[in-house]
Amino acid sequence: MIDMTNIKNIIFDIGSVLLEYRWEDMLMDHGLSREDAIKIGTAMFTDPLWSGMDLSSTGEEQAIIESYHRKYPEYGDTIEWFINHCEYMHVPREDVWERVHQLKGLGYTLYLLSNYPETMFHKHTDNAPFIADMSGGIISFQVKQIKPNAEIYQSLLRKYDLVADECLFFDDRADNTEGARKQGIHAITVTSRQFLVDELDKIIAAKNS
Q1: pLDDT for 33-48, tens place per residue?
Q2: Full set of structural domains in the chain with CATH
Q3: What sections of the chain are H helices per DSSP?
């Protein structure tokens, strides 16, 4: 566990941290076999086009969808359906949200830092209780910057006048947590839902001791 003595601010990624994703099951619900769901989903998410999605504002997604159609003509219709119905993709993590709320009550200032397209961000978070516990944040589509590039971390620090050494960042991707560390931000890579719950419980227990 990271020494929390100087930590005043806790920063959260969203996907696979505050929310779970069921993209594989979602594609299977659409009629695909598990094998095809994995194949198409992996192609979609690992393609550089998805980084473009994370930078997109509402209205800009269609150009990226059209690029997917050109690049993957056999998958294009499925990818377009997936993007247009992304509200079926996320799953709440109420146990995590409960602990986030406790952290807020213990005096930590909480922020978001996540790569997300605008439309998907709103579909996934507009009714999520954890939003009320956040004092702010930066989402990739807002600033046209993306993790793990240095500028998005610096944008968050500047926007809220944060001291990097007073911040702790939770993200499920090692490249993103390493990107944070390069900017002087303490970071923990979330390897599972239970791992995150355990880490948050340690912070809460230490603060209460």
Answers
A1: 999 999 999 999 999 9
A2: 9-20+92-208 (3.40.50.1000), 23-88 (no CATH)
A3: 23-29, 34-46, 48-54, 61-71, 76-84, 94-105, 118-125, 140-143, 150-159, 174-182, 193-208
